[in-house]
């Protein structure tokens, strides 16, 4: 099926999901929309997040997408169920894939989750884990310093190591064997987080897992792309084009970077005309 | 949804998939049917495998299952597509989940696959991998000694190590970073295979991955079980009850073993009466 997979995010965090989609599903075309102008969604009310998310979804529906990936934890927590009920295309969020992967990996049913304050406060991961497996123990921790650090490009090295070590210290005493990176920015810190947690802990990237499950869902719905035409992906931002391009360059490596066009999005245009 | 997940296999190999389903989806009830009397399916013709598989499926459909897991590589290779087209419940096989997991894990696009001679000859894993990702290099190898060794209970120790080492030696010169265990018996040898391949190779259990994707599909189709009633699983064999019980005991540990009833199945009974 030639139609694209739509990906929405509050800004640039979802680019790690897009990168994994390109890597794991190289035949599929993506149309990504990041609402950088109104990022972050974390501190906003449920009503506002729903309104903004539907604006992003409407923009992508106009482009005839075959599936929707909600690559933002806050938007997933507040809108996934509604989107799944109201849209007639498959919709996946970033929370459930990370939860299911963690249940697969854990051997002692002790799972840690780190994320933004909003995501941890929403208890979305805890609820997702417990809905599948009642005897999972969840240790959830907000790491408010990680997103600003990633956005400054501090991913490895002494400074990153120090911040990650001190942030994760409340988790070090537990018996968890699996840690979910419950924020789409965190995969960029995966190596540093793995170093700090030690090899006995499996670190789960919800971006990798969401791409993996997108692959499953395309197969189950029989809408996977066949043929070998190399796709040209369309990326849109509601915010500053130059900043978005710089961050995209830092996340996508060749050959993926060559396959992406980045433009400014005008939301609600179709309604106005 | 209170209905059970149906699991079919040519014999006892699928019990590793059943174990993973119990572990990862502890609220779900399973009805398992192993065609031990006519095992193995590997050397049989496509026509015969299809006929036998439909007999297993009909037995489970009578029990009103909500989803079907084909926990046998041969049956998956020959019948998955037909089952998905003809049944109005979701159907998953054991090949695609392992392939998708390998694509997620690999970093150099070099993937190894081991399985029975029939599975390797069918090239089912190679086709599944290449349909998603054209530039994956696949190194496939039949390991005919592994199933008899597992069925004799030789899983670790010097003898197991020697057989695994000599069987896998053709793979040791390649650059693969990911190895798919493309046979449902092989997860019982996972530790020995991991020791032989070394830590730099990710070893993928298609049983673990099939259970993980079953979880995804239950969620997507909104047929996941809610509530906390502990299920009693029904297991059936077409062959010798005592042998089946012995093997089930060696695969399931407590508390899972306490949750299983095992009975002899009479195929085609409903048609006869």
UniProtKB/TrEMBL annotation, chains A, B:
Protein's name according to its UniProt entry: Glutamate racemase
Pathway annotation from the record: Cell wall biogenesis; peptidoglycan biosynthesis
Gene name of the record: racE
Function: Provides the (R)-glutamate required for cell wall biosynthesis.
Molecular functions per Gene Ontology: glutamate racemase activity; identical protein binding
UniProt-listed GO biological process terms: cell wall organization; peptidoglycan biosynthetic process; regulation of cell shape
Gene source species: Oceanobacillus jordanicus
HAMAP family in UniProt: Glu_racemase
InterPro entries: Asp/Glu/hydantoin_racemase, Asp/Glu_race, Asp/Glu_racemase_AS_1, Asp/Glu_racemase_AS_2, Glu_race
Family, per entry: Belongs to the aspartate/glutamate racemases family.
Keyword annotations of the record: Cell shape, Cell wall biogenesis/degradation, Isomerase, Peptidoglycan synthesis
The keyword Membrane belongs to this UniProt entry's keyword annotation: no
Binding site for substrate: 9-10, 41-42, 73-74, 184-185
EC number of the protein: 5.1.1.3
UniProt keyword Cell wall biogenesis/degradation, yes or no: yes
Catalyzed chemical reaction(s): L-glutamate = D-glutamate
Pfam entry (one): Asp_Glu_race
PROSITE patterns (alphabetical): ASP_GLU_RACEMASE_1, ASP_GLU_RACEMASE_2
Active site residues of this protein: 72 (proton donor/acceptor), 183 (proton donor/acceptor)
């Amino acid at each position: 099926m030639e139609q694209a997979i739509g990906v929405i995010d509050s800004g640039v965090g979802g680019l790690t999901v897009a990168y994994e989609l390109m890597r794991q599903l190289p035949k599929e075309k993506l149309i990504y929309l990041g609402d950088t102008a109104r990022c972050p969604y974390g501190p906003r009310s449920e009503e506002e997040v729903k309104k903004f998310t539907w604006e992003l979804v409407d923009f992508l529906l106009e482009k005839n997408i075959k599936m929707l990936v909600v690559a933002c934890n806050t938007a997933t927590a507040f809108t996934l169920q509604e989107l799944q009920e109201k849209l007639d295309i498959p919709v996946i969020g970033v929370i459930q894939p990370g939860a299911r992967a963690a249940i697969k990996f854990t051997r002692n049913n002790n799972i840690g989750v780190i994320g933004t304050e909003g995501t941890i406060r929403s208890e979305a991961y805890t609820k997702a884990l417990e809905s599948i497996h009642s005897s999972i123990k969840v240790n959830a921790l907000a790491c408010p310093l990680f997103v600003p650090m990633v956005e400054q490009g501090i991913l490895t090295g002494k400074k990153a190591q120090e911040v990650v070590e001190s942030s994760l210290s409340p988790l070090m005493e537990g018996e968890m064997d699996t840690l979910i990176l419950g924020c789409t920015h965190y995969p960029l810190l995966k190596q540093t987080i793995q170093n700090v947690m030690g090899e006995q802990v499996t670190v789960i990237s919800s971006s990798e897992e969401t791409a993996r499950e997108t692959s499953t869902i395309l197969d189950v719905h029989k809408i996977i792309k066949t043929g070998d035409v190399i796709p040209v992906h369309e990326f849109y931002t509601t915010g500053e084009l130059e900043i978005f391009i710089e961050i995209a360059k830092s996340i996508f490596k060749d050959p993926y970077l060559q396959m992406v066009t980045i433009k400014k999005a005008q939301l609600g245009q179709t309604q106005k005309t």
